[in-house]
Amino acid sequence: MWCIPPEQDAAFVAAMEQVLDVYQRPYDPLFPVVNMDEQPIQLVSHSRDPLPLRPGDTVKIDYEYVREGMCNAFMFVQPLDGWREVFVSKTKTAVDWAGYVKCLVDHPRFATAKRITLVCDNLNTHALGSLYQAFPAEEAHRLMDKLELVFTPKHGSWLNMAEPELSVMTRQCFNDRVSSQAEVERRVSAWYTDRNKRQIGINWQFTTADARIKLKHLYPKIELR
Asked: How confident is the prediction along the chain (225 residues), in pLDDT tens digits per residue?
């Protein structure tokens, strides 16, 4: 009798190892690996003007605020080459995602790339079908031919290297209130331009071998009785 773990554990393990195997590929400009993730940003303004800084006293900000809507940040990061770009949109539809994927495929830095491996999570808009919603069939097929989509497992989005990059962006760009999408775009553009100039990469150290040790409870336990 074969004893196998729940199906979701096996699916998680398979998807996790696929992602980790991608991360172990050597840098190759012809086959670049890019991570993608997105994050909503709440826009808020002050309900009352803050009291300015005075000698011996700090700035005082009223805890009440005014909601000004939302916008969305689409992050693309190439960990091994210290490059990232962030697109800010008002919505986060399948068409939005497809449009920014087209920007990635047609970016000058990937002009000679034969295929781009794009690592992203399982959001339903992150799918090749979204390209066909946004573009004519010929264009969608052209973009699809340049892409290899690799998905992080369900409940395992922490395996996406774009997540820590989004965390850095949030801490460094949005430690105060931001009231407009234009201001979000200004801050984000200045942020990733600076990081690209300094070629800040991501030192990812979690490997398949580590996963088999630390997440041993998720791996199949096959017993022959």
From this structure: 334 345 568 888 999 999 999 999 999 999 999 999 999 999 998 778 877 778 877 877 777 878 999 999 999 999 999 999 999 999 999 999 999 999 999 999 999 999 999 999 999 999 999 999 999 999 999 999 999 999 999 889 999 999 999 999 999 999 899 999 999 999 999 999 999 999 999 999 998 898 888 888 888 776 666
208 sits in which H/E element: helix 208-214
Do residues 153 and 18 make contact, with C-beta atoms less than 8 angstroms apart? no
pTM above 0.85, yes or no: yes
Asked if 125 and 94 touch (Cβ cutoff 8 Å), the reply is yes
d(CA 198, CA 191): 11
DSSP element (H, E) containing 42 = strand 33-46
Write the Ramachandran bin of 56: left for phi over 0, alpha for psi from -120 to 50, otherwise beta.
left
Handedness of CA 62, 63, 65, 70 (dihedral sign): positive
